[in-house]
Design brief:
The complex is a heterotrimer of chains A (349), B (312) and C (306). Chain A has 349 residues and is of the alpha/beta class. Chain A folds into two domains: 16-233, Rossmann fold (3-Layer(aba) Sandwich), CATH 3.40.50; 255-348, no CATH class. Chain A has helices at 65-72, 98-102, 122-132, 137-150, 155-158, 168-180, 198-215, 226-232, 250-255, 260-267, 308-312; strands spanning 16-29, 34-49, 54-58, 80-85, 88-89, 105-108, 186-190, 218-223, 235-240, 243-249, 332-333. With 312 residues, chain B is an all-alpha fold. Chain C has a single domain (34-65, 84-299), classed as MetI-like (MetI-like fold, Orthogonal Bundle). Helices cover 72% and strands 0% of the residues of chain C. Chain C is elongated. Classes of the chains: A alpha/beta (349), B mainly alpha (312), C mainly alpha (306). At the B-C interface, helix 1, helix 6, helix 7, helix 10 and helix 11 of B face helix 6, helix 7, helix 10 and helix 12 of C.
Chain lengths: 349, 312, 306
Amino acid sequence: MTADARDRGGPAQPLLLVHGLRKHFPVRGGLLNRRIATVQAVDDVSFSVRKGETLGIVGESGCGKSTTARLLMRLIEPDAGDVVFDGDPVADRHGITVNAMRRQMQMVFQDSYSSLNPRMTMAESIAYAPRMHGLGARQAIERAESLLAQVGLNPRQYARRYPHELSGGQRQRVNVARALALEPRMVILDEAVSALDKSIEAQVLNLLRELKERFNLTYLFISHDLNVVEYVSDRVLVMYLGRVVETGPVEAIYARPRHPYTRALFASKPTLDPDRRTMEMPLTGDPPNPINPPSGCRFRTRCAFAQAICAEVVPPLAAPLDEAADAPTEHLVACHLPEGQAAMALHHA
Amino acid sequence: MLIFAARRLIQAIPILLGVSLVVFGLVHIVPGNPIDLLMPPEASPEVIAQMKAAFGFDKPLYIQYLLWLGRALRGDFGLSVFNATPVWGQLVAALANTFVLAILAAMLGFTLGIVCGLVAAIHHGRWPDKLFSAIATTGVSLPHYWCAIVLVLACAVLHDWLPAQGMGDDSLPLYDRLEYLVLPVVTLSLIPMGVIARLVRATVLEIIGQDFVGALTAKGLTRWPVIRHICKNAAPPVLALMGLQFGYLLGGSILVETVFNWPGSGNLLNLAIFRRDIPVLQATILVLASFFVVLNLLVDIAQAAIDPRIRR
Amino acid sequence: MSQTTADFVRRELQVAADAPQAAPTPGYWKAVARRLARDPVTIAVTLVLLGIIFISLGAPLVTGGTDPYAGSVLARLKPIGTPGHWLGTDETGRDLWTRLCYGGRLSLLAGILPVSISLMVGGFLGILAGYAGGIVGTLIMRTMDVFYAFPSILLAIAICGLLGNGLSNSVIALSVVFIPPMVRIAETVTTQARQLDFVEAARASGTTTMQIIRHHVLANVLGPIMVYATSLISVSIILSAGLSFLGLGVTPPQAEWGLMLNSLRQAIYVQPYVAALPGAMIFITSMCFNLMSDGFRSAMDVRLNK
């Protein structure tokens, strides 16, 4: 891959380093509209994204994936935590501003229709950000048309159309083109293909892969669809109720998931092979409320292995207990108990 | 629900205080000393100083405000500058007269408005819709003081059907006294009729257009239960508007009362303006505005009681 | 871009250039204009309004130079159809048709000016409150609530009664009366627009607040605000004429429809039809603005016209 002129620190430095990200939302009520409860949406989330890789974030609805994406883009202000982009702390006196970060990191949203201004043409929507950042009007439109071509939409046909005239897949391509308009280095895809039909989804995923190679991009791919995440990701992060429970290379996670939640998540995928039925026990109990999450390990109320320590101490994200202490591993899991971490060899259907 | 009501009640207090501040402040924003407004120009400085002390105008502004507010809360608005009778008594009597008009006009206007709006909505696109929509728009566009004049013209001048002015006195039997009510009530009811009709039509159309009505019909419900369902869903915004309109009827009847010489609070206000009767002016505006605030409060609570989505 | 990428793009653009040009779809506003053009009621009403405005502005032309202030005691209260005074004369002998034409100037001014002022002030405050939210928004909205607590005519009368007579005072009073509802509607619409995804996407692209408001929020917000403002004009005309009717607005001997209605009130027993004319003008003008506003709202409502 060609080196980006904006690269600082070389390939060893992670493009994105997130540490201790936290966001709690107050719930107001009562006589004077005071805060009566807190939704702990994202709690102590840390991870890193390497240059050129695709990090998949997976989890159920409400686990905090989208909130994390918005925190990264600074659409919501985090309560705590640091975000470091290619060595520069974001929104820090010694680092780069939020606006400077936004020129290097962009986002594609889930709802393709509401992400586009219904009163603007496709070319205008794509050209908007470059124009606002100083590009001339004509050059901005030219760049928009070129991008439309890159995402597979004929600019002569689509540049002057309005969102309601395009299909979902076409709109999402436009959204991708718009994300690329500022020539970012990293793109966050927040459930970007979840609302599309399966065949269209496959096309868009392939397009994303082509674009990644062509433009030297790094992706953060958020989805609740396990198969899609497996298809696109190099590494995977599993979230539950605002915390990271497991992370590692995609092969490791999908072949040998270690955290009880991850295992249950994969077990919910029914196997097609009658001779190798899924043996793992399903999730028990009700999903707890993010307003009053369980103390310690948040998964303990649904975990078959829960012990006293799980309620007292938050399990740290660390290497699995049964691996050799000095063997370098990227596969980290947040669980106290060896039996909880016991690897299960998944039979791929 | 109770918490919502209590919360709205608490929120209403600063608004009422703000209203009282505005009413108090308006008089003092006016260029010129309030005393000069009350006193004849040839009054000597000693008399002026005396009056200032008597009215309390020599004290600092916020003290004046607090004193005035305190007295107001007890119903003591002082004496009318014009005829030296207690303001409160005059105001209450006038308010009662306006109240009669407002209630009757509200009943007439709301009923007609709902009927118009419903008919227009149900026959959407066809001639009844156009007709009743036109009637509603007319009601809203009519300057009601002009309409009053036209009605007086038609019913009292050209033909001697109804009395043109006043309230009639106690010597007349009840039936004759009711005649005096007809024209003012009809005139006042026009604007609420128009406003309510337009809102009812818009709301019912929106509800009919929603999918769940189709679902209800598909479930096999016959017309009458569907209509009841529509009414239940259309009720909250319409009720809110009705409350607002009633407030306008009470507070905004001045023009109609002037034309018909109806001795209500609007007429009192009119006279107070021309006589520069500041105590009466302040008292009337304060009471009417406060009533409006309380009315809005009750309407909000009633809305929340019907529509659970509103209570957050 | 690498060479392969450049080639790829060039090829794609070449393919694109060979394809037939798609017909450009009309923009949103053009579609609105087209719908309006097909609405006979709105067109008729707009023409009537233009007629009234023309008559008012061009009063000297239309009335053949008659002086609106010249009255003759001998010619008092002539009926409609009198030769030389085709709409009759008022209580001091002035020609009614002339007075109506000149009166239109002040009445229309008193109707449109307060709404324009409150549109600018209230719209600005409302969009600010809606977009910024937080303390600023709450402060603005709570202040508006206090003024909202007064029935509009009461507030107008209070302000006028204390400021005194005159057109400028009644314009000020009406502007103050209309600012709170303008702020409220602007704030509501802006808050709704602010939460839309494409506005969030615009924020994510690192553009400034002013740019976002100008390009994304304003276009989606101005529609409902303009519809509301147009409907307010009819209210303003009625209220300002009402103020003059009470003696609080325009002073005699100026020509203004509300004032004329008041001074002709006693004449109702003598010349009823002449006395009712000024009110008819108020009614017609107000009705036209209302219908025009309704027409705009229908044309802009995407749901009804899908």
